[in-house]
C-alpha cells in the first residue's frame, strides 16, 4: 500500500478539552476503496479524532492531507468541499424536515432565481433511494416519523448523492436492528466497490471483522496501533483495545485473561 | 406510521368525483390540505357567527369587518416575523417597545426634522421616513440578534432587556410628548377614507388574487407531471381553486360594501365636483392600505419561509440545531437574520400604526408583544421550535382581533376582555398540544 498516495492522512492530530488530552498525537491514513475501522473503548477519542476530519471539531495540533495535499478543515463546509461526508452516531437530521430537505440541507438545489427547487430535490432523492432502498416511499414525511434504518438511509443517500470520496461512519448501526444493520453492511460493501474510502467507527468487533480491511485501535486518546485485519485474531484486537498492547507484545496469559 | 405516498398511478387522475364518507380522511390527505389550517378557519367561523348573534347582528356588518381588518393589520404583520423567530427556538419580547421606539423615531423625523430641510408635504417625505423606519428596525434586530447568536445570551433575556430599553428610548426621544401630525401622504399607510383602494381597484386586486391562485395550482401540477410525482386528485384541485377564489371575492365584496360615512362622502363629492344627490351618495371604501400591506407581507414571508434557503435553515435550526450546524449552515448568522426580519416588520407595523393614529405617543405598542406572540402561538407555532406557518400566524392574529372586536361590540369591560383573551390563548394551545400528541401515536 505504501506505493500509493493515501486518500487521507491525518498526521499527529491532538485535541484537548481543558487539561484532558482527548486525542494525543494520533496519525492514521485511509486509501481509496478501503474500509478502515477505528475502534477503542468509550472515551478512547475515536469520535473526537474523526470530528477534526469532518469539520465539527478543530484540532489543536496536527495536519490533514488529502490526495497528498495539505488542507485546512475548519468547519463542515470545508470538509464537504473535499468530498468528506459524515454519518453521525446521533443520526443528525432535522426532525421537522422531510427526506429531500434533509438530504440537501445546507446544499439545496435552487432555481435560477435562487428559490428552493423542491421538485428537483425530491426527484434526486427518489433516484438515489431507488438504488439504496427501493422500498422507501415516505419522501414527504418529516424525519421524526421515520425509523432508525430509514433515517440512516437518508444520511447514506446524502453521501452517495454528493459523490463522497471519503465517508466517515460513526457507529452507523448503533441505533439499528439486526436486519437494518445487515442493510448498512451491504451498503458499505457497495460503496467500497465504488472506490470510496470509509472510516468506520464501531463498538461491535464482529462488524469490524466483517467489513474492515485495516483496524486502528485507540486507547485513552492515543493510537495503540494499526493492523491488517487478515494478520490478527479478534482476541489480539481485543487485547489492543483493553490493555493497549500490540499482537507481538501481548502474552498468551494476557490473551486468556481477556475471557477470564 | 401510515403510508401517505403511493406510486404514481392513473387512478388518482380518473377519480373525478368526491369520495364517500368512508374515505373522507384519506381524501383530505390526498388533497394535501392542512387539517390544522382547516381547524383554524372553522374556529374563526364559529367565533364570527357566535359574536354576530351575541352582538345582535352587528358583528358581520361590512362596517365592523372593515374596521376589524384595519385593526388586525399591525399584529398580523409582526406575527409573520415572530413565527420565524419562534420556529428557530427563540422569542422576541421587545416588539411592542420596538414599535414604540421606531414609531416615535419615524414620527419625529417627519413632523419635526425633515420639514426643516424639505418643507412640509414634500412628496418623497413619506418614503424617506418609511425607509428610515425599516432600517432602524433592522438595526435594532441586528443588535439584539447578534447578542443572542454571537454572545450567547438567551433571547428571552436579550429581548426582555429590549422591552425595557426601547420603551425608555421611545419616551426619552420625545420626553413623553405626543408627536403629531403625520405627513399627509404618510397617513395613507394607516388606511382611512383616503388610504383605501376604492371599488374598482379592490375588484382588480381580488381578480389578480384569483388568477394567482390558479397560476400556483397549475404550476404545482405541471411540476408534479414533469417529475412523475403523484398528482392531487382533480376534484381537490378544483375545490381549492373554487373555495379560494370565492373567499377572496367575498372579502373584496365585504370591503366594497362599506361606504364612506356621510360627512366624508360629502367632502369627497365636493372635491370631485359631484353634486350631492337627495338620497346621499354611496361610495365604497374598498380594501384599506394596511390590509393590503399585511397581505403583501404575508405573501412575501410565506415565500421566504418555504421557498428560500434562509427559511429552510430557520426550520432546520428549530428541528435540530446540531444537525443544522453539522450540515454546514451558518446557524448564528441565520438567527441574526430572523431578528433583523422581525425588526423590519416592526418598522412596517409601526408606520401603519402611527399613520392610523396620525400621531406617536410614548406608550405606542404597549403589550403588542403579547398579542403578536399569542397570534403566532394560536396559529400553531410551537414554542419548542421547528413548527409553525406564516399563514397560521395571520389566521391567529385574525382570531385575536375578532375576539377583541366582538367583545367591544358587546360592551364587555376591558378587564373581562383580557381575561377572555388570556383563557382563549391557553385553551387554544392546550387543544393543539392534545391533538399533536394524539397524531404522534
Description:
- The complex is a heterodimer of chains A (260) and B (441).
- By secondary structure, chain A is α/β, with parallel strands linked by helices.
- In chain A, 34% of the residues lie in helices and 24% in strands.
- In chain A, the strands form two sheets. A six-stranded mixed beta sheet of chain A has the order 6-7-8-3-9-10, sandwiched between helices.
- The model of chain A has no long low-confidence stretch (mean pLDDT 89).
- Chain B is mainly α and 441 residues long.
- Chain B is built from 17 helices and no strands.
- Chain B starts with 10 loop residues before the first helix and ends with a helix.
- Mean pLDDT of chain B is 90; it is low at 1-19.
- At the A-B interface, helix 2 and helix 4 of A face helix 8, helix 12 and helix 13 of B.
TL;DR of this structure?
With 260 residues, chain A is α/β, with parallel strands linked by helices. Chain A has nine helices and ten strands.
Furnish the topology, listing elements before pairings:
The complex is a heterodimer of chains A (260) and B (441).
Chain A: E1 8-17, E2 20-30, E3 35-39, H1 46-54, E4 61-66, E5 69-71, H2 76-81, E6 84-87, H3 99-103, H4 118-132, H5 148-161, E7 166-170, H6 178-193, E8 197-201, H7 205-211, E9 214-219, E10 222-228, H8 234-243, H9 252-257
Parallel strand pairs in A: 3-8, 3-9, 6-7, 7-8
Antiparallel strand pairs in A: 1-2, 1-4, 4-5, 9-10
Chain B: H1 11-14, H2 24-31, H3 35-54, H4 62-87, H5 95-118, H6 125-151, H7 155-174, H8 199-227, H9 234-256, H10 262-272, H11 289-307, H12 309-319, H13 321-326, H14 331-357, H15 368-378, H16 390-409, H17 414-440
Helix pairs in contact in B: 3-16, 4-11, 4-12, 4-14, 4-15, 4-16, 5-6, 5-7, 5-14, 5-15, 6-7, 6-14, 8-9, 11-12, 12-14, 15-16, 16-17
